[in-house]
């Protein structure tokens, strides 16, 4: 069972800051791999980011929310690991 993907409206800005090849790979990884089991593949965040998950993709992090009953993941941010939690 694959989850559906919804991209937050601000994600386009994040993807435009990435190299085109990296952005393409991120989109491909989310739509083909992460949707298969986002709870198991991602890591739950803690403290002020509780309820969110992150998926590691090289030097980049993909931050998302999982809606289990709706079988949907919402991608919130895609940024370099040094910038994602700011």
Write structural notes for this entry:
With 86 residues, this protein is α+β, with helices and mostly antiparallel strands. It has one domain: RelE-like (YaeB-like fold, 2-Layer Sandwich), CATH 3.30.2310.20. It is 28% helix and 33% strand. It has helices at residues 11-17, 20-32, 38-41, and strands at 4-7, 43-44, 53-57, 60-67, 72-80. It has a 5-stranded mixed beta sheet with strand order 1-5-4-3-2.
What tags apply to this protein structure?
86 residues; alpha+beta; YaeB-like fold; 5-stranded mixed beta sheet; 5 strands
CATH superfamily: RelE-like
- What fold name goes in the CATH topology slot? YaeB-like fold
What is the succession of H and E elements? EHHHEEEE
Please, how many helices? 3
Class derived from helix and strand content: alpha+beta
Topology:
Layout: E1 4-7, H1 11-17, H2 20-32, H3 38-41, E2 43-44, E3 53-57, E4 60-67, E5 72-80
Parallel strand pairs: 1-5
Antiparallel strand pairs: 2-3, 3-4, 4-5
State the gist of this model.
The chain is of the alpha+beta class and 86 residues long.
């Amino acid at each position: 069972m694959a989850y559906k993907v919804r991209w937050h409206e601000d994600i386009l800005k994040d993807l435009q800051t990435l190299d085109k090849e990296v952005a393409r790979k991120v989109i491909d990884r989310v739509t083909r791999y992460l949707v298969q089991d986002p709870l198991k593949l991602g890591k739950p965040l803690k403290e002020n980011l509780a309820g969110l998950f992150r998926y590691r993709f090289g030097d980049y992090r993909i931050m998302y929310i999982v809606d289990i009953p709706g079988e949907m993941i919402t991608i919130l941010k895609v940024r370099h690991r040094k910038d994602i939690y700011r």
